[in-house]
Amino acid sequence: MTRVLVVDDEPQIVRALVINLRARTYEVDAAPDGATALRLAAAHHPDVVVLDLGLPDMDGVDVIRGLRDRTRVPILVLSARHTSDEKVEALDAGADDYVTKPFGMDELLARLRAAVRRAEPAAGGGNEVVTVGTRGFTVDLAAKKVNRDGRDVRLTPTEWHLLEVLVRNTGRLVSQKQLLQEVWGPSYGTESNYLRVYMAQLRRKLEADPSHPRHFVTEPGMGYRFER
């Protein structure tokens, strides 16, 4: 059974989420503030976190960073903040998706299911390991692991899914729309800021020189290409 941690200080929203999630057989923990959220996450190991950014004790972005220090759990931000910069800040901190209040329950649940699917191990898949460059990194598609310089690289579920799509299309241009729909879902297609944030994160973690990428290549106005 999937365990969800709901972090929000608005009782009516928490109540609505808890009722809807439990009706769909999710296990649910709820936290009214950031400190409680971090404590519950450490104790109960949720499979996905639904997080409001406007918390009474700390900014939700700091909660994201605190979670990312210890776990790759998918984080779905739920917030009344509307500006692109605020969304990018949350994504850059390690969130996997962003839903703006007021929200539709069906859309929120669909995005939650998509976030959980992205974090699940691939079925089958064999022992497919891709070696990138002579002194680069390796991508184990079956185990969902990346190794660089003898050390595992920690990727969020969304970072991994984006990397996986690109690696499975090595040498081919993958359009922005295709990447958005494969990684975030069919309702996406124009949120190019998501791609800019996550490509920058992959480059920081995997490129020898992130400012002059060799493997994660941008095709301006079209999409991205992965080169070994």
CATH homologous superfamily heading of the largest domain: Response regulator
Series of secondary-structure elements, N-terminal to C-terminal: EHEHEHEHEHEEEEHEHHEE
- Report the strand count: 12
Distance between the ends: 39 Å
In DSSP terms, counting alpha (H) and pi (I) runs of 4 or more, how many helices?
A: 8
Described by strand count, sense and barrel closure, the largest sheet is: 5 strands, parallel
Shape: globular
Radius of gyration: 18 Å
Structural class: alpha/beta
- Mean of residue pLDDT values: 90
β-sheet strand percentage: 15-25%
Poorly predicted runs of 5 or more residues: none
Number of domains: 2
Q: What fold name goes in the CATH topology slot of the largest domain?
A: Rossmann fold
Strand order, largest beta sheet: 2-1-3-4-5
**Percent helix range:** 40-55%
CATH architecture descriptor of the largest domain: 3-Layer(aba) Sandwich
Q: What is the class of the largest domain in the CATH system?
A: Alpha Beta
DNA-binding region: 127-228
Protein name: Transcriptional regulatory protein KdpE
InterPro entries: CheY-like_superfamily, OmpR/PhoB-type_DNA-bd, Sig_transdc_resp-reg_receiver, WalR-like, WH-like_DNA-bd_sf
GO molecular function, one term: cis-regulatory region sequence-specific DNA binding
